[in-house]
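Example for tutorial group B:
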């Protein structure tokens, strides 16, 4: 399967089409779905070194190994860049991080089955190549220059552009891993409330799922170094958009924000045209320097929305982007946390009551400080740990009311167990890793590849 047939859709002739694309994501509650995406580092089990793209035990070979399970190749020119099966995609991130973009599923039991199947298949394919997987938010040992780049067209454009807008963009691309969940909204009012709750609580999720306390083999002083990196990647397209809390926020306001963010590329003929730093509004006026005289299609708008990186991203669904990668249990805990809050109206309203007392200054300080201080971060007279505990309880209540049972027995609340262990002990995975490093590994960071292998 080649990337020669770009999705273009209708020509964009009016700004209202941009807003309408996002608004068309509205769905009745019966059609709401849960999509989970998770990344992990790939390493050589003999040397613990990162894995490059080429070679008999490279990322390309690993993807080809997935063919045995019914996955089909996706090419960009001569390069294998992804594997697809149904609505699910496997692809490498810029530094070879191995990502599963899951299908939109009806409940968390289906998500659990998808994750289990993925790791069963991926572990088998990896074992045959002498490879393993590690779930952390930042690579614990490798220097950036030791990680090979994956040959994808838009990665090359981003790589060139990143140093002009921040100092840590290459670190983000090559050395970070995340888990995120994609959720739906019913209408504009529902979207607005969910965006406000999700944006405010995203740093709390960062504290709950913090798992990046090491850099080049040593503690780095952060609970989530991954989130620290995002804070110096590209201020125009990253961070916490405070405008979601302003009166009048809705689909149109988000579209205006997206229009204000510089582009990365235009995709044509299976390739990528460098439009980095250029304006989508100019594109609509036929004045894009990269494609003078041409105007965009709705597919170009979709591509542009996908290269915005706020903590909560809006397309035709909503993406929660604040969590580090972690254990298999934490991969499932993240969609469970957000589904319990977002897909139950009582829990969602209660979450809003919980955080609406925060001022803009409270939100900004929490967002700024949580990468370093994690669960200990102060906010509005309490700590992130206190708010995390309250939020997890709301998620539990929401999942209990959903009452979706596996084979008529256990409901979805079982997938929150890991989060209750974290909130009750006020000890994140990052805290646990630091404790192991000091007391059990005796400062030998290589033990992370044995203790924390997925």
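The residue assignment follows.
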């Amino acid at each position: 399967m080649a990337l020669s047939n770009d999705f273009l859709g209708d020509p964009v002739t009016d700004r209202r089409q941009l807003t309408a694309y996002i608004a068309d994501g509205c769905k009745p509650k019966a059609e709401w779905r849960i999509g989970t995406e998770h990344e992990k580092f790939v390493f050589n089990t003999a040397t613990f070194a990162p894995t490059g793209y080429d070679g008999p035990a490279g990322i390309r070979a690993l993807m080809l190994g997935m063919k045995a399970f019914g996955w089909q190749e996706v090419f960009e020119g001569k390069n294998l860049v992804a594997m697809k099966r149904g609505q699910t995609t496997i692809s490498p991130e810029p530094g070879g991080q191995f990502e599963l973009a899951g299908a939109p599923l009806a409940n968390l039991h289906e998500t659990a089955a998808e994750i289990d199947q993925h790791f069963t298949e991926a572990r088998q394919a990896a074992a045959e190549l002498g490879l393993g997987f590690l779930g952390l938010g930042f690579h614990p040992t490798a220097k950036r220059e030791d990680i090979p780049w994956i040959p994808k067209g838009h990665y090359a454009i981003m790589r060139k552009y990143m140093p002009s807008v921040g100092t840590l963009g290459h670190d983000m691309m090559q050395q970070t891993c995340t888990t995120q969940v994609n959720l739906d909204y019913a209408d504009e009012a529902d979207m607005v409330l969910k965006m406000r709750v999700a944006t405010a609580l995203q740093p709390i999720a960062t504290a709950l799922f913090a798992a990046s306390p090491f850099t080049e083999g040593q503690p780095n002083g952060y609970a989530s170094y991954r989130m620290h990196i995002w804070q110096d990647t590209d201020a125009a397209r990253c961070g916490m958009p405070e405008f979601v809390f302003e009166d009048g926020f809705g689909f149109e306001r988000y579209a205006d924000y997206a229009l204000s963010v510089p582009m990365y590329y235009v995709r044509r003929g299976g390739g990528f045209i460098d439009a980095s730093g250029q304006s989508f509004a100019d594109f609509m006026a036929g004045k894009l320097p990269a494609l003078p005289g041409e105007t965009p299609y709705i597919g170009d708008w979709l591509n542009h929305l996908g290269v915005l990186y706020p903590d909560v991203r809006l397309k035709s669904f909503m993406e929660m982007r604040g969590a580090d990668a972690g254990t298999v249990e934490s991969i499932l805990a993240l969609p469970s946390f957000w589904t319990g809050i977002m897909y139950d109206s009582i829990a969602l309203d209660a979450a809003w009551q919980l955080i609406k007392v925060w001022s803009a200054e409270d939100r900004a300080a929490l967002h700024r400080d949580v990468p370093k201080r994690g669960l200990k971060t102060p906010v509005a007279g309490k700590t992130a740990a206190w708010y995390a505990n309250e939020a997890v309880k709301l998620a539990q209540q929401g999942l209990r009311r959903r009452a979706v049972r596996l084979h008529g027995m256990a409901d979805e609340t079982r997938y929150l167990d890991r989060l209750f262990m974290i909130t009750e002990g006020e000890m994140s995975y990052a805290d646990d890793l630091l404790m192991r490093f000091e007391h059990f590994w005796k400062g030998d960071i290589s033990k992370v590849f044995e203790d924390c292998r997925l």
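The chain is about 40% helix and 15% strand. Compare this with the pattern of hydrophobic and polar residues in the output above.
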